[in-house]
């Protein structure tokens, strides 16, 4: 270097901090969350070093550094929140709040994180604590928005009262409604069917919600054409697995809760987790995480992931028409039954499970994993593809029926194309002879439901068989009592009631049925519109 050349001044720590701070802010504004976290981390380290170096010599300087550090923790928390690194984001907020207990950004971010973790009342406290500062800094509208949302979710999760009426009546336009997680009157217990199951702790009437829970991960796609659909399914499955792995690695709670699910082996020996673990406001924080390697994750997903557009489910809103797969933790404890008492409604990433018929305290909550409006033979085949032999009450009853052969003949007749009215007539006459009553009558009728549906839907068949077979309403009632409300049964009922002209009694019947089908999540007018949509 020549003598006359100027030596660049050495960068002071302050300069470097200034550069890092500008860079991190820029990345945050550009929504480059990962990079922003990295640069904020460098800034935070340097800032902490400077605080130690400065020590007690310069209190003003230390106070300035604390201010910068507090802001950096809050901003890194925001970026981590966007990356769904909730635990680390929460730790950053705590660090910031240690330095400044009422720091606006830190409190706001903490509230948002708690909201994402379904801790509604704690989130509410955080937002309330920002109010003074929000007022002074012109952020009142933002904070009020969060407060409103939080109050609504806290109320939903405490009471189980949800109302999707406006959204339904609006033709599902606009944003999907925000939902809270909710756990109703249920507990997890050893099941007579297999492993653990979900049980009612109180009488639950048809339509009442049992649980509402958000997917740990979900994936959707449009499947069309055989080849592309197979490929599309594989891609979807891979993306779904990646999302699950990411969630388990980022959140100890998710990791722990997933590890409580069945992987299909030795189900009867599995521990029974306490329902409180799954409650949205759960305070648990010490999770003993069991081993969860890739093989185990894959087996767990095989046994527990649900397809949204399944027979016992209804997808509302923009996800209709998509093939969707997801993992919903508490819903994973619900066993299958061919005489189920629950159904699910999918709204965005949430699943809402409700009673599809009245359920008694102590009764197991069950869903139909596959089509329960079909014969014992077909159901046996379907449960085989699911990897289990169905142990439900209805299967046991039908397997033990001494007149099995006669039923089989009626079913085979239907397969050969005999008159549906004739099949219904034969089954009804046979049931009289075998003295089959109550729920069991409903089981048998559900097994050849397609014949009942065809008969009641055809003027020609009704002219021929109408006086010799029971009235449609009585058959629907017995099927619903046995296997709960179902969409195809709804079609027969609604069309029948429409033909008769909807009087008060008919309307009452339709509403009662509709609550079992859709759950008590909409008011009368919206329920009517949903039922009409089904038959249009
Ligand atoms: C989503 S898990 C249900 C909860 C499970 N029983 C547990 O302990 O975690 C599905 C598994 O439960 C068992 N299962 C569910 N319904 C059944 C039924 N009706 N009969 C026999 N096994 C059933 C099967 O092993 C099935 O793979």
UniProtKB/TrEMBL annotation:
Alphabetized Gene3D superfamilies for the sequence: SET domain, Tetratricopeptide repeat domain
Coiled coil: none
SUPFAM superfamilies named in the record: SET domain (SSF82199), TPR-like (SSF48452)
Domain SET: 184-370
One Pfam short name: SET
Name under which the protein is recorded: SET domain-containing protein
Organism: Acer saccharum (Sugar maple)
């Amino acid at each position: 270097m020549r003598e006359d050349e100027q030596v660049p001044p050495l960068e002071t720590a302050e300069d470097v901090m200034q550069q890092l701070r500008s860079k991190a802010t820029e990345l945050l504004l550009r929504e480059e969350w990962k990079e922003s976290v990295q640069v904020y981390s460098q800034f935070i380290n340097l800032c902490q070093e400077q605080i130690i170096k400065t020590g007690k010599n310069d209190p003003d300087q230390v106070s300035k550094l604390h201010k910068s550090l507090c802001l950096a923790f809050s901003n890194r928390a925001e970026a981590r929140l966007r990356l769904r690194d909730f635990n680390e984001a929460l730790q950053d907020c705590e660090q910031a709040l240690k330095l400044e207990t009422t720091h606006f950004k830190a409190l706001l971010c903490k509230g948002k994180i708690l909201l994402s973790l379904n801790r509604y009342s704690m989130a509410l406290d955080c937002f309330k604590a920002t109010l003074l500062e929000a007022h002074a800094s012109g952020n009142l509208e933002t904070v009020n928005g969060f407060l409103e949302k939080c109050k609504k979710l806290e109320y939903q999760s405490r009471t189980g009262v949800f109302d999707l009426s406006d959204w339904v009546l609006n033709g599902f336009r606009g944003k999907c409604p925000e939902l809270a997680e909710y756990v109703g009157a249920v507990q997890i217990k050893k099941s007579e069917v297999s492993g653990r199951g979900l049980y009612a702790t109180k009488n639950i009437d048809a339509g009442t919600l049992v649980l509402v829970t958000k997917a740990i991960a979900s994936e959707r796609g449009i499947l069309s054409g055989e080849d592309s659909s197979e490929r599309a399914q594989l891609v979807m499955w891979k993306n779904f697995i990646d999302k699950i792995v990411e969630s388990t690695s980022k959140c100890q709670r998710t990791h722990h809760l997933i590890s409580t699910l069945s992987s299909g082996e030795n189900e009867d020996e599995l521990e029974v987790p306490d329902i409180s673990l799954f409650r949205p406001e759960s305070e648990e924080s010490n999770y003993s995480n069991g081993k969860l390697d890739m093989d185990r994750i894959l087996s767990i997903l095989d046994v527990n992931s649900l397809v949204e557009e399944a027979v016992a489910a209804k997808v509302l809103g923009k996800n209709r028409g998509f093939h969707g797969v997801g993992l919903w933790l508490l819903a994973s404890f619900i066993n299958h039954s061919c005489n189920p008492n629950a159904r699910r409604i999918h709204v965005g990433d949430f699943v809402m499970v409700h009673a599809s018929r009245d359920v008694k305290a102590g009764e197991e909550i069950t869903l139909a994993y596959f089509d329960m409006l079909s014969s014992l033979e077909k159901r046996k085949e379907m449960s085989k593809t699911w990897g289990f032999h169905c142990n439900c009450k209805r299967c046991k009853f039908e397997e033990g029926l001494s007149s099995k052969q006669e039923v089989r003949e009626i079913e085979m007749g239907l397969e050969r194309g005999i008159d549906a009215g004739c099949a219904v007539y034969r089954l009804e006459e046979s049931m009289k002879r075998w003295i089959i009553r109550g729920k069991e009558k409903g089981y048998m009728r559900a097994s050849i439901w397609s014949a009942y549906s065809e008969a009641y839907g055809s003027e020609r068949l009704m002219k021929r068989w109408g006086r010799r077979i029971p009235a449609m309403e009585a058959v629907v009632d017995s099927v619903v009592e046995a296997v709960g409300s179902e969409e195809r049964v709804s079609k027969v009922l609604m069309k029948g009631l429409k033909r008769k002209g909807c009087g008060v009694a008919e309307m009452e019947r339709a509403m009662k049925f509709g609550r079992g089908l859709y759950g008590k999540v909409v008011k009368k007018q919206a329920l009517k519109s949903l039922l009409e949509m089904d038959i249009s």
